[in-house]
């Protein structure tokens, strides 16, 4: 738990960070995560050479993660005598690390473009959020891509960030999001990145192991009916092991099961057609399901905040007993 603070303070800071994200959205200029992305790009260009790619990847991860995380930890320590500034710093670091509003801003316009049958605009918007080739994507391809991105990034950009904030405050959220960024940029099985990005991918897998399963459980619990809850649980347990990613599998399988739709299937990555396992059960996803996926992600965020508030209330009651 966040060192030195009770659940009441943690809950307040969680709500403050989420509220700031919903009100302000992403910083348009000088966003810290954009800076981290630029740093990751520069490190990869400089260090990813023919010899010792694996070890160079480890060095690059250390150079990206350690100085920034340590710097935020030192800032928190320096502000520790000043309660209000300390709380403000934690809340701002959480705000910079969250991406709930941006998930909606990037995915809901895809649903709107598909509703208007504007496939060219939908392809352009979808290409901004996924690494797969969308140049000839069908409506169903883009719908699957958007929903998969929403469900998976619900964990990466929201719940995983909240989880690590609860454990280690602002520095924990920053560390986690740096790992996400490195994995998103380096964690591909291409000839150039297979060895260099291995450390980044494994680091992200480790940091996401518990948050991903808590996310999958949350999607299951928030499925609209008992039958849907059972379906989400079944999809999680039966389908997730077949997915390449040990964390994306549970998250997307349970989310697809909760929504009663099918995800996965064929997708083109870096010019190569990949046949991915099916996730979920029911009808093929349609454009309107993007709105349903967004509601599931939003409701799960409220669910996590409500749980934190309940724990804080129980803790307060125990102190007064």
From TrEMBL:
Location of this chain's protein in the cell: Cell membrane
UniProt pathway: Cofactor biosynthesis; adenosylcobalamin biosynthesis
Role according to the record: Converts cobyric acid to cobinamide by the addition of aminopropanol on the F carboxylic group.
Membrane topology of the entry: Multi-pass membrane protein
Family: Belongs to the CobD/CbiB family.
Transmembrane segments: 6-24, 54-78, 302-320
Name of protein: Cobalamin biosynthesis protein CobD
Signal sequence residues: none
Predominant cellular place of this UniProt entry's protein: membrane
Keyword set, alphabetical order: Cell membrane, Cobalamin biosynthesis, Membrane, Transmembrane, Transmembrane helix
């Amino acid at each position: 738990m966040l060192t030195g603070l009770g659940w009441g303070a943690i809950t307040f800071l969680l709500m403050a960070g989420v509220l700031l994200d919903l009100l302000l959205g992403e910083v348009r200029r000088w966003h810290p995560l954009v800076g981290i992305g630029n740093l990751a790009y520069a490190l990869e260009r400089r260090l990813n050479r023919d010899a010792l790619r694996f070890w160079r990847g480890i060095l690059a991860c250390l150079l990206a993660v350690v100085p920034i995380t340590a710097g935020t930890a030192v800032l928190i320590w320096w502000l520790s005598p000043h309660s209000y500034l300390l709380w403000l710093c934690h809340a701002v670091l959480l705000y910079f690390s969250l991406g709930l509003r941006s998930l909606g801003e990037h995915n809901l316009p895809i649903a709107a473009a598909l509703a208007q049958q504007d496939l060219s605009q939908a392809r352009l918007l979808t290409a901004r959020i996924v690494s797969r080739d969308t140049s000839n994507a069908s409506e169903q391809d883009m719908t699957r891509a958007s929903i998969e991105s929403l469900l998976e990034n619900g964990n990466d950009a929201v719940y995983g960030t909240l989880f690590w904030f609860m454990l280690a405050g602002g520095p924990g959220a920053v560390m986690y999001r740096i790992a996400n960024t490195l994995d998103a940029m380096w964690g591909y099985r291409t000839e150039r990145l297979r060895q260099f990005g291995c450390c980044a991918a494994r680091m992200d897998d480790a940091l996401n192991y518990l948050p991903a399963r808590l996310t999958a459980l949350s999607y299951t619990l928030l499925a609209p009916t008992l039958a849907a809850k059972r379906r989400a649980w079944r999809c999680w347990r039966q389908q997730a092991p077949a997915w390449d990613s040990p964390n994306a599998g549970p998250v997307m399988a349970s989310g697809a099961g909760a929504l009663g739709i099918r995800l996965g299937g064929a997708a083109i990555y870096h010019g190569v057609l990949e046949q991915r396992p099916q996730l979920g059960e029911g009808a093929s996803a349609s454009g309107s399901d993007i709105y349903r996926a967004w509601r599931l992600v939003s409701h799960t965020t409220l669910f996590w905040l409500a749980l934190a508030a309940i724990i804080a209330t129980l803790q307060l009651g125990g102190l007064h007993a």
